[in-house]
Every structure is written in structure tokens, then in C-alpha cells.
Amino acid sequence: MQTTEQIISQTKKWITNVVIGCNFCPFAAKEMKHGSVHYQVENSIDKAECLQSFIEECSRLDEEKNIVTTLLIFPVGFQQFDDFLELVEDAENFLELNDYEGVYQVASFHPQYLFSGAPVNDAANYTNRSVYPMLHLLREAQIDEALERYPDPEKIPDNNIRFAREKGVQYMKLLRDTCFEL
């Protein structure tokens, strides 16, 4: 079993090498540099406990304004992508039911991420294929602010897909998998 520190180190390496290195999120480097990303590891496999951890991260963001974004990492649970999608749906419902819509947004990453309608072997899936299942909780105000300063933000997903497909599945998988090497 890996330690929390190892899991966080692997996640940071994935962000640095894949998310920032491939420019999948042009805003991630700034937050990494400023240390405004919080990492929380949840080792439970119980969905209710994991959702409780998500709720606690919303509370953390409410209280700690210096944290811009949180990555809630599930190294043990939600290994099946369909099970993870249920957690994502529950997290989104929680935001809606608790007046967090417009305050926080959830992005999801998973080692088996599969865009709807995409073939399993499409390299574009690696834009969201992470080292562990994780929920990314973002402050919408910071998203809006960043998008205002970025030219053509609507092109980001298409640029990411094009980049991943140009590199190919083997490259994208190797890049992600090397994040386990510490």
C-alpha cells in the first residue's frame, strides 16, 4: 500500500508532466507555482464516506480562501469507471442542492476515463486519464477570471484532443504511467 505522500507526489508529477507539460490546462502552472492546490487522499471504498470527504473539501474551500482548487484523490475506491461516474453525479448533485452552483465546479479524472462515444483506444481520452480516480473541485470565480484573460478558451478542448491524437495512445499512456516512478 502506498503512503499518502507517495500518492500526492505521483499526482503532482501527473499534473506537471501531463496536465501542464501537454498544456491541457493552461491555468494549472500558475496555481502549482503559487501552491494554491490542495491534495486530499481518501482511502475509503465506501461511497458515502467518499462523498462526505467531498463535502468536507467544499467546506475547506469555504474557509481557506488561499486554496484555489482541491484534488480529492481515491487511490483505492472507484477503480471501475462506471462506479466513479456515479460518484461524480452525486458530487454534482450535492453542489446543486447546497447552493454551490456558480461557486464551485467539479472536473473528473480517472485512469480509465472514456469520453462519451469515444473508442477506448482514442488517445484523446488521456486528456482526462489520471494516475488515480479524482474529483477536481474548482472555484468558479477563478475559472471565469482566468478565461477572461485567455484568448479563445473555447478552443482548449479541441486543442487538447488534437495534441493527444497527434502524440498517440502509446505516448500518452507512457507519459501518464511514468508518473508512478518516483
Largest sheet: 4 strands, mixed
* Backbone structural class: alpha+beta
Residue runs with pLDDT of under 50 for 5 or more positions: none
* Gyration radius from CA atoms, angstroms: 16 Å
Mean pLDDT: 95
Q: Any idea what the shape is?
A: globular
Helical run tally: 7
Could you tell me the strand content as a percent range?
5-15%
Order of helices and strands: HHEHEHEEHHH
**Spatial strand arrangement across the major sheet:** 1-2-4-3
Describe the structure.
This protein is an alpha+beta fold and 182 residues long. It has one domain. 49% of the residues lie in helices and 12% in strands. The chain has seven helices and four strands. It has a four-stranded mixed beta sheet with strand order 1-2-4-3, with helices on both faces. Strand 1, helix 3 (47-63) and strand 2 form a beta-alpha-beta unit. The relative contact order is 0.17. The mean pLDDT is 95.
Q: Secondary-structure blueprint of this entry?
A:
Elements: H1 4-20, H2 28-34, E1 37-41, H3 47-63, E2 69-73, H4 81-97, E3 104-109, E4 134-139, H5 140-149, H6 156-167, H7 169-177
Helix pairs in contact: 3-4
Summary keywords:
7 helices, 12% strand, globular
